[in-house]
Design goal:
By secondary structure, this protein is an alpha/beta fold. It is built from 14 helices and 17 strands. A hairpin with a 7-residue loop joins strand 12 and strand 13 (285-289). Helix 3 packs across helix 10 (258-267), helix 9 packs antiparallel against helix 10 (258-267) and helix 11 runs parallel beside helix 12 (325-337). It starts with a helix and ends in a 15-residue tail after the last strand.
Length: 416
């Protein structure tokens, strides 16, 4: 256990949370100075929000990369420059400050002049992103999540707004915000930055029209004052229309040609753990997705339920030491939309996994699900996956949710 872990164990949690940002700020200042402020040598596009950050970051990176920009990527899933993208093994989106500084230097050494940087509320609240000169700030959406840390929705929202304030104070950047117009918090983010461009389906400066959606992706039209863009993306779901619209906004903001925007978005074939299809020749669909919030559950279920030919079988869990309130909502939504539910572990940490599963199951039962009939509790995730797949037959759709790209699972600690 490191020094931070010892301190965290010795003092009360609330006190630790109040002083932790000070330590992170000092660390960020120190490591930026030691490393010569590596972020200043790139134009940085930050992406924040509850859901869709990773997919949006990948779409933007693909768009710039295909157009010939020397662009780096740092996301939950991976990091690297151009086509040389390496898996992210850390169990977090925004890595610790020393790792962040090291990677920024590596990306710059590898030729990156632009960087798409996925940014979390935790990192912003803890000042771990101090010294990052955001030029463009992208906001995807804001829903019920991470209240175990931020305690209130307002504090959670204001933590994410810090990225827009940072971009606004970077007078060498574009001071541009790309904002989801249909999110209730849009006005707060727009007020934090000098220039803004909004997007949506029903609202916004950029609107998706003539939408054609299939299980393989979406096609839609975006009209601007000067032209019309025809967007084709290989990421299914209504939420990915919003993610691609955000990328269109970035492209227009930095002066890309319409055809480069179109080609770059179409070039992305998929994002690991984000609506990833598993095809081993079976006669039913298996999809792996990172969805783990109530909002992402509802959006996913609403999109996929109408196109399922057979049963919709959903496997998921809920993390320990994270927002407990969402467990009942997850169970309720799954109970409403799924034909069968398998509840399993998802990073229990030091919390009793059976207790978490029972909380989810109780909510599903209120929607009419019956244990051992169409509701099953299989704690071990590997066993749960095998059990779930064996339940499927021709025409069914299996959703394996919550972990997405992650290759590890947290058991018996740590609390963090």
């Amino acid at each position: 256990m490191g020094f931070r872990g010892v301190v965290k164990k010795l003092i009360p949690t609330r006190l630790f949370k109040s002083i932790e940002p000070i330590g992170h700020l000092a660390e960020a200042v120190l490591f930026n100075v030691i490393n010569g402020f590596p972020g200043r040598k790139m134009r940085i596009i930050g992406v924040t929000g509850t859901n869709g950050k990773t997919s949006t970051a990948f779409i933007i990176h693909s768009m710039l990369n295909e157009a010939g920009y020397q662009v780096g990527l740092m996301s939950t899933v991976a990091y690297g420059v151009g086509d040389n993208i390496k898996p992210q093994v850390e169990h977090m989106t925004s890595v610790d400050v020393p790792t962040l500084m090291k990677r920024l230097k590596e990306l710059r050494k590898d030729g990156a002049k632009w960087l798409v940087l996925e940014t979390t509320s935790h990192a912003l609240a803890q000042h771990r992103m101090w010294g990052i000169p955001y030029s463009v700030a992208v906001f995807t959406n804001l829903t019920h999540e991470h209240l175990d840390y931020h305690r209130t929705f307002r504090r959670y929202r204001d933590a994410k707004r810090k990225m827009f304030n940072m971009a606004n104070h970077n007078h060498k950047g574009l001071r541009m915000g790309i904002i989801n117009a249909e999110d209730p918090s849009a006005k707060y983010f727009a007020s934090d930055i000098k220039n803004s461009m909004t997007y949506g389906i029903n609202e916004g400066d950029l609107r998706a029209t003539d939408i054609k959606s299939t299980p393989a992706g979406n096609e839609f039209t975006v009209k601007t004052e000067d032209s019309t863009l025809h967007i084709k993306e290989n990421l299914p779901g209504t939420f990915n229309i919003f993610n691609s619209l955000a990328a269109v906004g970035v492209g227009l903001a930095i002066g890309m040609k319409d055809e480069d925007i179109e080609r770059g978005i179409a070039a992305l074939k998929g994002v690991e753990g984000r609506m990833t299809r598993v095809d081993e020749g079976q006669d039913f669909d298996v999809i792996v997705d990172y969805a783990h919030t109530p909002d992402s559950f509802e959006q996913l279920f609403k999109d996929i339920k109408p196109v399922v030919k057979g049963k919709l079988i959903v496997m998921f869990g809920s993390a320990g030491r994270r927002d407990e309130e969402k467990r009942t909502t997850q169970g309720d939504l799954a109970g409403k939309y799924a034909d069968e539910i398998i509840v399993c572990e998802e990073d229990d940490r030091d919390i009793d996994g059976q207790e978490i599963m029972d909380q989810i199951a109780a909510a599903a039962e209120k929607q009419g699900k019956v244990r051992d009939k169409d509701l099953f509790l299989v704690h071990d995730r590997t066993e749960a996956i095998n059990f779930t797949v064996k339940r499927a037959s021709q025409g069914d759709t299996v959703l394996l949710l919550g972990k997405g790209h992650e290759k590890d699972i947290l058991r018996n600690g740590p609390r963090a």
